Structure formats: C-alpha cells, structure tokens
From TrEMBL:
Gene designation: Dnm3_0
MF GO annotations: GTP binding; GTPase activity; microtubule binding
Record protein name field: DYN3 protein
One of the GO BP terms on file: synaptic vesicle budding from presynaptic endocytic zone membrane
UniProt keyword Phosphoprotein, yes or no: no
Phylogenetic lineage: Eukaryota, Metazoa, Chordata, Craniata, Vertebrata
A UniProt-annotated Pfam family: Dynamin_N
Length: 407
C-alpha cells in the first residue's frame, strides 16, 4: 500500500481501470478526449473531463478548469460562443458550495477582468472569491502589480495571490514542476516589489490557502447542508410510509391522483391570474397582468380611437328635442327631455360595442393561453392534458358568448 501511495499516477473516468504514470500521456489524453467531445476545431462542451490524480505532493481538492471568455468566434465555433461559454461558467460558479478562483493576467487591466466580473455577479459580497494574478514575470519593465497583490486597488475579502506558471517555451523544453516551483520562488524573493510578501505568493501558498479556505467553507456550510439533508430524509421517510400499502390497481388511488392534478391545475391557474405564481415571466406580460393591461390601457385606447363629431351630435340632440315636441312650440328649457336624452345616449352607447367586444376577445385569448401554460404540467398524461384544456377552454368560450350577448 505504501508503494502504491508513493507512486504518482492519474485516472480518467472515461478510461476506467487504466492508470497513467506518465503525465505527458495525461496531457495527450486530455487533448484527444477534448477533440472527441468538441470536435477538431476549437469547439466547446459543458461535459467535464474527469481526471483524478493520486500523489503525495498534491492536496485533496476538486478543481474545475473553466475556459476563458472568447470574444470572437474562431474555427467552427458558433457566433454566440461568448454567450455559450458564459452560460457554462455560470452553471458552475453559481453553486454556493464552491470557491471561485478569479484568474487574471497581471499584464492586463484588472478593471476589465472577465473573471472578476462574473465572480461578482454570483458572489457580490466576495465570500467565495479568491483573486489569482498570473504572468507577473511578463509585465513591462518598471511596472508591477504590488497594489493589486496588497489588496489595495480592487479589494477582495479573501485577497489576491500571485503565481508564476511555466511558459509555453518551458513546457516545450520539458521543464518539470519542481524546477518551475523553484524558479517561481526565486522570482518572488528577488523581485523588489514582491520580496516583502514572498511568503504569501506562489503556487504552494495558493494550495495551502485553498485547502484552508475550503476547510473553513465546508465547516461554515455544513450545518445548513446537514439540516437540508435531514429535512429531505424526513420527507422521503414520510413518502415511504405513504407507499407502504400502495396497490397500483387500487381505483381510489387513481381517483385521488386525478383529483390532486386537477386541483393543482386550478391552483396554478389562479396564481397566474393573481400574479403569485412560482415562476415569473421576464420576457412579456401574461396572465392577470396582461388582462389588467387590456382593461386599463387597451380598452381606453380603443375608446379614444372612436370618431366623435360634436357638430353632428348637437344637430342630433336638436332634432330629437324638436321631434319630441311635434307641433308644439319648442321653448328653451334647462333640462333635455327624458325621451330625447335616452335616444341620444342609447345611440352613443351602441358605439362602445366594438371596443367592448374586442376587449372580450383579447381577454378570452389570454385566458386560453394561460390554460395551455398550466396544462404543461400534465404533459405526462396527454389524454388528461387534452381533456382538461378542452373542458376549461370550452367553459371560457361559453362565458365569452354570454358576455358578448350582454354587451
């Protein structure tokens, strides 16, 4: 067992049982698997390549290496490659139980760092973010990242750690990790701007910080995680008790299940109309909000569009009054005669019929759309979904006809 532990090797999840002792082969396998999953021309995939390294020189950490943001598509990459990569990154860093390593090159403006920007979106308080500054050895002569590493320029709660990785020339020249770590240590000890903080810089220190931070993070989140698991366990145990005496062919259970689904449909429909649903549509108005808009914005707009000729109306009023008096002399009076008033008002009210019927149609259509959205949860049972939609839509159309008759 001791010999096995002292031997460094790696295993891939997609190559079960095969141990890689040559880490050049590990690199080649990663490239081959990447091309197999994403294609040969710079494609991407959210499916991770799982690699486990066994070594006495590494810590027990799970690291997820995410791609950098691509601004311009290359090769066979789709036009929306930037959004695809962003969505994939957000899928991982949004998890509350992970730490975020926001890696930024030292020779770029920290204020334009995509890594820090994305980290701030999901971790605005900086509770899970650790800044990592790379390429310190490639900065222009006379410049340094001292203010950043001292956490003065753009402060992070967990601060920044500087590292110096192997260059592509070092990798091509087969420079091993031990030599790279010694060179990194020498760089920080000999650089006048970083000498005073050399003990808080470098890859070994980053490993130590990650291990400690992850331990602290696990300790902080464990109580809530344990409580959540206990709650889920109690729920599952309750569900098990319910199904202990379950008989699939029991008609009463089928009836109960049917009633529960119908009741849930009713609750979902009511919530969408009242605006208290569990899902909020951010793209367009729907449900009760749209119906409210029809009554308070669309209907008044249709009324304003109605043509109104004041001279014609005054002429009609004059004729109505005169016709009511017949051969009698018409004297100026303070109030319009009742019959004349009713005749004129009825004629004007008839003009409201068009906007009213149009509003009824719009409300009816939105109610039917809401029904269709609610029946999506019944999609597992196509017949029930179809019948529910047909019955409720039929009832809505029936109410529509009665409303139009009243109009």
């Amino acid at each position: 067992l001791l010999l096995i532990f002292l031997t460094e090797y790696a295993e891939f999840l997609h190559c079960k049982g095969k141990k890689f002792t040559d880490f050049d082969e590990v690199r080649q396998e990663i490239e081959v698997e990447t091309d197999r999953v994403t294609g040969m021309n710079k494609g991407i995939s959210s499916v991770p390549i799982n690699l486990r390294v066994y070594s006495p020189h590494v810590l027990s950490l799970t690291l997820i290496d995410l791609p950098g943001i691509t601004k311009v598509p290359v090769g066979d990459q789709p036009p929306d490659i930037e959004q695809q990569i962003r969505d994939m990154i957000m899928q991982f860093i949004s998890r509350e139980n992970c730490l975020i390593l926001a890696v930024t090159p030292a020779n770029t403006d920290l204020a334009n760092s995509d890594a820090l920007k994305l980290a701030k979106e999901v971790d605005p308080q900086g509770l899970r973010t650790i800044g990592v500054i790379t390429k310190l050895d490639l900065m222009d002569e006379g410049t340094d990242a001292r203010e950043v590493l001292e956490n003065k320029l753009l402060p992070l709660r967990r601060g920044y750690i500087g590292v110096v990785n192997r260059s592509q020339k070092d990798i091509d020249g087969k420079k091993d990790i031990k030599a790279a770590l010694l060179a990194e240590r020498k760089f920080f000890l000999s650089h006048p701007s970083y000498r005073h903080m050399a003990d808080r810089m470098g890859t070994p220190y980053l490993q130590k910080v990650l291990n400690q931070q992850l331990t602290n993070h696990i300790r902080d989140t464990l109580p809530a995680f344990r409580s959540k698991l206990q709650s889920q366990l109690l729920s599952i145990e309750h569900e098990v008790e319910v199904y202990k005496n379950f008989r699939p062919e029991d008609p009463t259970r089928k009836t109960k299940a049917l009633l529960q689904m119908v009741q849930q449909f009713s609750v979902d429909f009511e919530k969408r109309i009242e605006g208290s649903g569990d899902q909020v549509d951010t793209l367009e108005l729907s449900g009760g909000a749209k119906i409210n808009r029809i009554f308070h914005e669309r209907f008044p707009f249709e009324l304003v569009k109605m043509e109104f000729n004041e001279k014609e109306l005054r002429r009609e009023i004059s004729y109505a009054i005169k016709n009511i008096h017949g051969i009698r002399q018409v004297f100026p009076c303070l109030f319009t005669p009742d019959m004349a008033f009713e005749a004129i008002v009825k004629k004007q009210i008839v003009k409201l019929k068009g906007p009213c019927l149009k509003s009824v149609d719009l409300v009816m259509q939105e109610l039917i759309n809401t029904v269709k959205k609610c029946t999506k949860k019944l999609a597992t049972y196509p017949r029930l979904c179809e019948e529910t939609e047909r019955i409720v839509a039929g009832y809505i159309r029936e109410r529509e006809e009665k409303t139009k008759d009243q109009v």
